[in-house]
Write a structure and sequence with these properties.
This protein has about 280 residues and is an alpha/beta fold. It has a single domain, classed as Aldolase class I (TIM Barrel, Alpha-Beta Barrel). The chain has an eight-stranded parallel sheet with strand order 3-2-1-8-7-6-5-4. The longest helix has 13 residues. The protein is globular. About 40% of the residues are buried.
């Protein structure tokens, strides 16, 4: 299922006066610099506001966990249609796919996802155990049915730590089997999971350990719901780092960080320009 092309956007309010301090920001449709929005309960009017105000900076909307199970079907179809009309991908949460795998109904899940208008599927094992063969088969079946596929590595339970070598193997295998990107788990809170400590601070050593075993760091999407996390990742990887679990109300604030019109990243751009 291929989303429509985005129509050219009108000029922005400050074009021709203000030049963005950080240059090189990708434009939609993006292959790099993705912003994946976490949607827990946006209604159609809230969605319309998000798309009107910030749609140029949203690449994927994820109806997180199993929240899409509680929509009336006509409402969900109307929602996915609005998102697709902007050339934005939309997907149900990976946890919901884990339920489908556990219950042995993946084919039915994919047929229903297509009929409901989803364009992307997340394959994960954040809660249940999925063996490598089943995981690879799930990615390939999603691709065969015309979906874009992203996978996710890491566990949601902070006590269930995936060894680094296994994380690297999963990333490598997922990409080889057809995932376009691999999400690094941090949950919607961004605390005590993955590369973030219990206070939500970035553990730079954990981040670098992950990157060290990945051939193309641009294939990763870092879940980073908190501003300090987004800042750390932008300062480390640049404005076109892929970021996920962004709250809808934070999309423009994140874009300001990416392009250097927010104090933290402006300072680096300013100091670099004075050298």
């Amino acid at each position: 299922m291929t989303p429509p092309r985005r129509t050219p956007a009108p000029s922005k309010a400050w074009d021709g006066v203000i030049r963005m301090p950080i240059a090189g920001r990708t434009r939609p449709p993006r292959a790099a610099g993705l912003t994946m929005v976490i949607d827990k309960n946006l209604g159609l009017r809230q969605l319309a506001d998000l798309l009107e105000l910030a749609g140029d900076y949203v690449d994927v909307i994820k109806l997180t966990f199993g929240t899409s199970a509680f929509y009336d079907a006509p409402l969900l179809k109307a929602k996915t249609a609005k998102v697709r009309a902007r050339g934005i991908d939309i997907m149900p949460g990976g946890t919901f796919l884990e339920v489908a795998l556990w219950q042995g109904v993946l084919d039915g899940y994919l047929r229903r996802a297509r009929s409901l208008g989803f364009t992307m599927i997340e394959v994960s094992d954040g809660t249940i155990d999925v063996d490598p063969a089943t995981r690879a088969d799930a990615i390939e079946r999603c691709r065969d049915r015309g979906f874009k596929v992203v996978s996710e590595v890491g566990k949601k339970d902070p006590t269930d730590v995936v060894p680094l070598a296994e994380l690297h193997r999963q990333i490598r295998d997922d990409l080889a089997h057809g995932a376009s990107k691999v999400i690094i788990e941090a949950r919607e809170a961004g605390k005590g999971v993955g590369i973030f400590d219990k206070e939500g601070k970035t553990r730079a050593d954990e981040m670098e350990n992950i990157v060290a075993g990945v051939a193309d760091p641009g294939a990763l999407i870092w879940e980073a719901p908190l501003k300090n996390q987004q800042q750390d990742l932008i300062l480390r990887f640049g404005p076109n780092v892929n970021l996920g679990n962004i709250p809808p109300e934070e999309v423009l604030a994140l874009e300001a960080l990416r392009q250097g019109v927010r104090g933290d990243t402006l300072k680096r751009a300013y100091l670099a320009g004075r050298r």
